Amino acid sequence: MDPATIAAGAAALLAPYLKKAGEEFAGEAGKYVQEKARDLWRKIRAKLDGDPPAKVVLDKFEANPDAHAEEFKAKVEEKIGADKPLGDQISADVADVKAKAPYVRVVQRIKEAQDVVGVRANRLKAGTVDVEQPIDVVKGKVVGADIGDIG
Fold first, then answer.
1. What pTM, to 2 d.p., does this model score?
2. Domain ranges (residues) in the chain
3. Going by C-beta distance under 8 Å and a sequence separation of 6 or more, which residues neighbour residue 16?
4. Over the stretch 82-109, which tens digit does the pLDDT of each residue have?
């Protein structure tokens, strides 16, 4: 797999983990994802913390994953381009999580909303749901996630 794809996968896995660092994910699969994300973050930190410019990027990404995802992906892509074993490790970790835990992310940027639902699910066996709904004007009801069953 190419470094850009690996870096993007790592960013996608780590962003929700870092945003919810002090919270528990739902269900057993969520715990699994949390553990894998924590391990991946530690691996990346261990490899990149010795490089001061990379450490700055990691610190910014950890503080605000959404705002610094592109910078993080570029730095990880650069590093794994020069360190194939690290790239293989990150790729395997991301693939393992994708195979075992569902992840749903919904982003709706809306100027004017009336009766909007981000996610409506009857059952999400396990995993993570991340809904972002910046709305300028709301007329009616707005629901982020309406999930009948989770685990």
1. 0.62
2. 3-101, 104-149
3. 37, 65, 103, 105, 128, 130
4. 999 999 999 998 888 777 766 777 788 8
